[in-house]
Amino acid sequence: xxxxxxxxxxxxxxxxxxxxxxxxxxxxxxxxxxxxxxxxxxxxxxxxxxxxxxxxxxxxxxxxxxxxxxxxxxxxxxxxxxxxxxxxxxxxxxxxxxxxxxxxxxxxxxxxxxxxxxxxxxxxxxxxxxxxxxxxxxxxxxxxxxxxxxxxxxxxxxxxxxxxxxxxxxxxxxxxxxxxxxxxxxxxxxxxxxxxxxxxxxxxxxxxxxxxxxxxxxxxxxxxx
Length: 225
What we know:
Distance between the termini: 55 Å
Oligomer: single chain
CATH superfamily of the largest domain: Jelly Rolls
CATH architecture of the largest domain: Sandwich
Number of helices: 8
Organism: Facklamia hominis CCUG 36813
Structural class: alpha+beta
GO biological process, one term: regulation of DNA-templated transcription
Pfam families: cNMP_binding, HTH_Crp_2
CATH class of the largest domain: Mainly Beta
Domain HTH crp-type: 154-221
Keywords: DNA-binding, Transcription, Transcription regulation
Strand content: 25-35%
Radius of gyration: 19 Å
Helix content: 25-40%
């Protein structure tokens, strides 16, 4: 493969295993690099869909509003996430919500039409995107559920309960900062609660691997008011 202008694209899950020529074609798209500050509006409700956004750093979120005027966050997008595939392939032409920057972010903006043409020619890329969107839907639902708990300990307990496999094991994703971002908490508070859980015997942790020792204790924790 030729040297890419945007090598960070290779870090993305849905670009793994695709043909080198496909990757080079994506890299040659007129990709715009955008930087957003926390609280900045990325797109307003009703704006036309023009780009697939790939999050390189930081976090974006989508805001919807109830009839009462209350703001509801419907999605969070972290580093290595991409959107809005589901709107593009669902036939939408405009945003049905506001897109805001939740945490200072760097984003690659890929033009939708050119990217769709490349996707249509590569079955592996299409499969990867289908898998990615499915995984994202599961993860985003968990993020929204975790954010409904007021305490860091409760968010951590919920995430572990929802994420462990049948043997009670969980692998912390990427870095501790990425894990903290997913729980929408700061890293130091998360580290403190992980140590508390270890000290209380709720979990065992070795590196990024976590084993759940006391499920009932964590279930009781998330029920606390």
